[in-house]
Amino acid sequence: MPDSDGTPAPAGHPHVLAALVARETGAEVEAVHDPDTGRWTLEWTDGETVEGVERAVRAAGPEAARGLRHGLHCRRRLSESAVALGAVRLATSTDGSGPRPHVDAAAVEAFWRDVRLPSQLTEREALLVYGLIYQVHDDRRRNEAEPEQICHLVRQAGLATILLRRPEALTPAELLTARYAGSHGHPAWRYCLVPMDDARLVQAVHADRTATADHLKAALTLTAALPDTREVVTSRLRARLRRSG
To answer: Phi/psi at 116 (nearest 5 deg)?
Structure first.
């Protein structure tokens, strides 16, 4: 890449390094100059890790590597989707027995530090990621979401409110937990999507005279994997389901 006077820029010039790293990694890398500090930073979104980009710079030769030693920085920005997926995976990384995982922008950054992006996501994760981003956009009345805004939504509102918009995605245990978690003191559902114990759910439906056919079916599905369920409980659930028509 030539300088403004037309002469070729040296191999260690940030713009040259940005083009080189872009070729090596497939990322859209920018060389950004801070006029206040005089510092150059290579920036890109998702894609290769910072370590991977620094490795590519060092592999370009001694002159390129010298740039890193003399203050050239590398910074990977996270897309909204990457932030939301990281927040979801952090929040759901618990079985509910301990404190809630801490979810903020720094924790998400650390979560992805050694991972090349994008990361493969499940159908459910895709629902949650889309729902989180949509909600932040809607709340802020703008088509962009800052990392901390996404994390704040996960911390304050929880993931259950997002998942419940698609009830067809709920497992039988989750369907019942959504009904009983509040009255049974189970906040891990709201924030971390940790369902209640299957046996407790079956008992909750058995004691709930207003349970719908869907709740009765879900409870009976759970009893199939609970050999210790009393036969009288199962029989009554089946009878109630038949009466519900």
So the answer is: -75, 140
Which of 80, 175, 96, 94 lies closest to 128 in space, CA to CA? 80
- Give me the residues paired with residue 30 across strands: 43
Under 8 Å between Cβ of 225 and 198: yes
Sheet holding 30-33, edge to edge: 30-33, 40-45, 73-77
Q: Note down pLDDT in tens along the chain; length 245 residues.
A: 445 444 445 556 888 889 988 888 888 899 999 999 889 999 999 999 999 999 888 887 887 788 787 788 999 999 999 999 999 999 999 999 999 999 999 999 999 999 999 999 999 999 999 999 999 999 999 999 999 999 999 999 999 999 999 999 999 999 999 999 999 989 999 999 999 999 999 999 999 999 999 999 999 999 999 988 899 999 999 999 999 87
Model pTM greater than 0.70? yes
